[in-house]
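Q: Here's a chain of 168 amino acids. Please give me its 3D structure as tokens.
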Amino acid sequence: MIHLVLNILFAIVVFLVPGAVALVRAAGSPSGRGLVFTGGGLLILSGLVNVGWAIWYFSLIVEPFGNTVAGGPLPYTGLINAYNTVRPVLVSIAVALLLFAVLSARGKVQPSAGTPTPHGHPPYQSAPGYHAAPGHPGQPYTQQAPAPPANHGHQPPQPPQAPRPEQR
């Protein structure tokens, strides 16, 4: 009985939980929704098949016959072989669909200047009037003319003006 309970728990943890998370996350994804919904659905289907298989196998094969039938093959051999073939194919297709969804979403998202990158830091930008150091990733080295001297709020000297007639 512990074997059955552990099989069901591992089927839930390994397939049903990631499938449910994929379905929930697909609702807010910018692209690849169909791939994520299909991959998550296949993971949930695989988890449900695993739970059903564990219950069926335990109740019809292990309980009455033990792990082997005395001197002969296990009953339902065709069904056992079909399960052992289809389940890995389902999981492989689901994982491939989720992988394609992630890769397609990555190609469409391009951060603009000033938006934080996934690690939380804004992309590197050089200060106005200056250029990036040579060899800095993503920044080409170009020689720029020096910036004009900053005024810092001071006005250049003006020639003296004669007083206006209305101010006399």
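Q: Can you summarize the key feature?
A: Residues 33-65 form the longest helix (33 residues).
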